[in-house]
Amino acid sequence: MSSSNIPQAGSGTTPVVAKLSDATLARFAREVAKYPAEQKQSAVMACLAIVQQEQGWVSAEAENAIAQVLGMAPIAVHEVTTFYNMYNQQPVGQFKLNVCTNLPCQLRNGQAALAHLCAKLGVENGGTTADGLFTVQQCECLGACADAPVMLVNDRQMVSYMSHQRIDELVDLLKTQAQ
User: Fold this and answer.
1) What is the pLDDT of residue 77?
2) Which of 80, 88, 125, 146 could form a disulfide with 57 if both were Cys (CB 3.0 to 4.6 A apart)?
3) Separation between Cα atoms, residue 81 and residue 58, nearest integer Å
4) pLDDT digits (tens, 9 = 90+) for 142-164
């Protein structure tokens, strides 16, 4: 992701701000209302999640819009976006497949699972298939070490014991669910 729209301190650059719909702003307002007025920046993660849910990813322009709504510096929102791997900083496929490659998963063939998935889909780690269905990413610990190797589908569904056969079955199943 380019940080060209993220102004640097003292740069004098005016950030490009995404136009958010009234419905999105209403959802933001519901999240902001959960916090004292002087702490509305506490809603930053919820606002990022809303943008990602609606747009599929969080652009620099969307970060700038969130910063404006919450009265934060754009770089502060960008720091949150880049700290957590749950926020997509570029468009992803319909199915985002995160493969854990932390040590417990490594010891139970997590890296081999990632390599097999990439080979099956014809993409490199971090890549998206030409048809836009799948994005494959390695990730840090998903907290299910006893079930290694594990994967996370669309940041929501954990799948365990991912042998090559189970990976193939998962990909085939997801293809049938594609829209």
Assistant:
1) 98
2) 88
3) 8
4) 999 999 999 999 988 999 999 99
Which long-range contacts link 160-168 to residues 24+ away (Cβ below 8 Å)? 162/99, 162/113, 163/109, 163/113, 164/112, 164/113, 164/116, 167/113, 167/116, 167/117, 167/120, 168/120
**With contact defined as beta carbons under 8 Å apart, do 65 and 16 qualify?**
no
- Please identify every stretch of the chain with a pLDDT value under 70, giving residue numbers as ranges: 1-14
> Across-strand partners of 153?
97, 157
Q: Which two tokens stand for residue 80?
A: 């949150």
Indicate the pTM of the whole model. 0.76
How far apart (Å, rounded) are the C-alpha atoms in residues 32 and 43?
Answer: 5
Length of the chain (residues)? 179
| Cα separation, 124 vs 111, whole angstroms | 13
